[in-house]
Fold this sequence. Notes:
The chain is built from 17 helices and 17 strands. It has 398 residues and is an alpha/beta fold. The strands form 4 sheets. The protein has an 8-stranded parallel beta barrel with strand order 5-6-7-11-12-13-14-15, surrounded by 5 helices. Strands 1-2-3-4 form a 4-stranded antiparallel β-sheet. Strand 12, helix 9 (219-230) and strand 13 (236-239) form a beta-alpha-beta unit. Helix 7 (145-155) packs across helix 8 (173-196) and helix 8 (173-196) packs parallel to helix 9. It is globular, with a radius of gyration of 21 Å. Residues 1-6 and 8-17 have low confidence and may be disordered. It binds zinc ion. Zinc ion binds at residues 325-326, 329, 331, 333-334, 360, 363.
Amino acid sequence: MQTRADFALFPSGPARYRAPMLQLTVHATDGPARLGQLATPHGEIATPAFMPVGTAGSVKGITPDQLRATGTEMILANTYHLMLRPGDACVERLGGLHTMMAWDGPILTDSGGYQVFSLAHLRTLDEEGVTFQSHIDGADVRLTPRRAVEIQHRLGADVMMQLDECPPGEASRDALLAAVQRSAAWARRCREAWDAFDRQTAHGRRQALFGIQQGGVHRDLRAESARALVALDLPGYAVGGLSVGEGHQAMCEVLQDIPDLLPADRPRYLMGVGEPRDILAAVASGIDMFDCVLPTRNGRNAQAFTWDGRLKLRNACHSEVAQAIDDRCGCYACRHYSRGVIRHLFMANEMLGPTLVSLHNLHFFADFMAAIRQAIAAGEFADRRAAWLEEMYGSATA
Ligand SMILES: [Zn+2]
């Protein structure tokens, strides 16, 4: 089965416009789970894919060569952090994000909305946008749909995200409904701004815009949100506002509706989700893309992901263990260092400790996604998912 969506908007334009903006090819399905390839102006990635997070224009402690060697194909950078420091105009003058990050693969930027709603102080929200106080110098900063698109146009990622309102996990149904409606209105304004920039980055590369579904755990609000976004005919769609404390089961119920709500020929991206069992549930509901800080944040805290679950490498029990983090792992850390040595590096506050465990975790996530893709290709996703859950969490229904 193959479905294709090509946003060939400038078929007679200069050569650079003829590169695909974004094109998803679905090679195989196993239930709603799908194996595909996403073509971007900076190359193709295999899906389902995991994107490590380079918050401020750097995947912490990891060089691009090391990142590439983990099997990573696409990365994410945070608009909120970059707009405040060094500033979007500065990133543009430095050559754009690909130059700044020394990364020639695809990049996605979020809109900044999530960080504004979760991190920033003294927010005021109105129909036109949101004003917040910079955590760096206390200055008032205004973010509107048009401004969010302008910033991301200057940053120059392959995919930009609409500005959306991200209510907290405990928000009432009324608050979630208001967020769905406001986010839909902002999606329309983002689309207009994206059109006004000719759907290109400041450096003349084609740039896709994704809408973001909201609605909390209310399936009718999720459906309303999806309908409004799909009417805008965007190159891709994201599911936002999950993994905010609703619990695994509630997340699974929301995700079950996704194959019916979001078009099959566009990439579907579940934002901010990286727990392996959540990734498995989302893939089972037809999600193609993920991002999360877990591999690098946990790596910096000496916590390693393995096929047998997590390891806390600061624990004294590892101090004289000559075995690698995971004997089955082919990453640089597992080929060259033992658990005991890595524990020592953390205890001695050596920079190499966080780098090695981050490298291992990034390699694990890339391997995990590759194993998921193989399972879909073999038509064995449900069985292997149950086996992985058993190994990692001790229960096939975790
Ligand atoms: Zn490893």
